[in-house]
Amino acid sequence: MTHPVIAVKDLTKTYTVGEVSVQALRGVSLDIQAGEFVALTGPSGSGKSTFMHLLGCLDRPTAGEYSINGRDAALLTGHQLARVRNREIGFVFQGFNLLSRTSAIENVELPLLYAGSIGAAERRARAGEALSAVGLGDRMHHHPNQMSGGQQQRVAIARALVNNPALVLADEPTGNLDTRTSIEIMGILQSLNLNRGLTIVLVTHEPDIAEYGTRIVSFRDGRVQSDRPVPVRRTAAVELQELAVSAAA
Asked: Is residue 1 scored above 80 in pLDDT?
């Protein structure tokens, strides 16, 4: 039997600060199958970022069930959850989260270093392959301050890929980028989804960015407001070609 990559049932999350309780999630239920590209949307405070943190095993729910690849996350120890985060989930953030004093290839090697039992030569080879896959084969030894924002986000994507995860969680990955660079980044994510079958969950405030996915789940007030397939998916590769033709005209 094939399990969903993500299975969530009646998930709730309540934060308590002093005597004040804030219910960030109010009974969210949904499944995400292997190979889907799901965009989570909604206004600030809607619960989508809290939901992303729970999917990434960065926090635990107050109640409800969450299974990743058929395993109940509530039954996993802290060590096991750390292993899931390192080997089964790739993370991409708006702020890139790169180490400023290390090169691109050293940044990408970090998850392999944390995994342990992987020799230096293999780490370097796998990191180089990941950087080449995102078009940075000629920038491996550059530091973040020698790169554009788009290049830094490519490094972050390579780092997310280096352990061959089953799932990539991308939190506002185009939030700090201009329009063309945003399309380029979405093109990389689309290619990974289409050509590698990688499951991607993307948080975005931007409705047009959500349309690069195959499905849009909208949050409001801690609940799923709507869950629908994308009728006509935007294609980043085509849009980049059109931009190139316009620039040359």
From this structure: no
